[in-house]
From TrEMBL:
This is Transcription initiation factor TFIID subunit 7. It is found in: Nucleus. Keywords: Initiation factor, Nucleus, Protein biosynthesis, Transcription, Transcription regulation. SMART domains: TAFII55_N. One of its GO terms (molecular function) is RNA polymerase II general transcription initiation factor activity. Residues 1-147 form the TAFII55 protein conserved region domain. GO terms for cellular component: transcription factor TFIID complex.
Length: 158
C-alpha cells in the first residue's frame, strides 16, 4: 500500500500547482518552485506554502473511506490506498472549519452523506445497557442473571 492524501485547494492555488507540476524546472517561475505543508502541534491546523504565499490548511476527516486505484496497463486496476482524511487549504480570509469531520465528502452525490445514507445510532437507555452488561458478566462467571425469563422451545424434526 502507498501513502496518499487528498489535497483540496482554492482555484487560484490549483492553477499555480498545475503550472508547477506540468512545466519542467527550467520553464517554471522561480517564485512558485517552493512547496511546503506544515501542521501545528494539534495536528489539525497548519500552513500550506507555495512560493512566497501562505495559506491556512486544516486536516478534516471524510464521512467514509475512499479507495484509491492505479493501473499500469489501462485494463487492470490495483487498489493502492484507503483514504479517510483530507487536507483542505483555504484562502487567507476564509474562516477555519469548526468541526473535525467534513460532512460533504468529495463529490456532489456525497453531500450530507452521513445524514442521508448511513443508519442513525439507536437511542439506548444507559441504565438498560448497564443492567445487561452486569448480567452478561454474571453469566460469563457461571452464575445466572436476575429477572430473566427462560423460554425453552423444542423442535421436532421428522
Amino acid at each position: 500500500m502507498e501513502e496518499q492524501f487528498i489535497l483540496r485547494v482554492p482555484p487560484s492555488v490549483a492553477e499555480r500547482l498545475d503550472r508547477l507540476l506540468s512545466e519542467n524546472e527550467n520553464a517554471s517561475s522561480s517564485e512558485d518552485k517552493s512547496l511546503d505543508l506544515s501542521f501545528s502541534e494539534d495536528g489539525r491546523s497548519g500552513t500550506f506554502v507555495i512560493g512566497n504565499d501562505q495559506f491556512p490548511a486544516s486536516l478534516l476527516d471524510l464521512p467514509c473511506v475512499v479507495e484509491s486505484y492505479k493501473t499500469y496497463d489501462d485494463s487492470v486496476l490495483i487498489k493502492t490506498a484507503d483514504i479517510g482524511q483530507m487536507i483542505m487549504v483555504r484562502d487567507a480570509g476564509d474562516p477555519a472549519p469548526d468541526v473535525v469531520e467534513y460532512r460533504h465528502g468529495l463529490t456532489p452525490p456525497m453531500r450530507d452523506a452521513r445524514k442521508r445514507r448511513f443508519r442513525r445510532e439507536p437511542d439506548l437507555n444507559p441504565e438498560l445497557v448497564q443492567r445487561v452488561l452486569k448480567d452478561l458478566v454474571k453469566i460469563n462467571a457461571g452464575a445466572t442473571a436476575e429477572n430473566v425469563d427462560i423460554l425453552i422451545c423444542y423442535a421436532l424434526l421428522f
